[in-house]
Amino acid sequence: MQKLDFKLNTFTGIDDVTASAIVAEIGDISRFTSADKLAKYAGLTPSQMSSGGRGKTVTTGKGIER
Known about the structure:
Layout: H1 16-26, H2 35-42, E1 46-51, E2 54-59
Antiparallel strand pairs: 1-2
């Protein structure tokens, strides 16, 4: 992680192992043109689901291995 010069492990709760897993999952971050697109890829953006006039907001779950 030090050779790649990523600063992910400077966040509270993210150690080298977690930071490495994030980098391995995302790959080249420059392929995302904005933070919003990265969040959408990671499944962190809300999505509206509705049927019959009733609905709820949920996260998409895309990009997350389940």
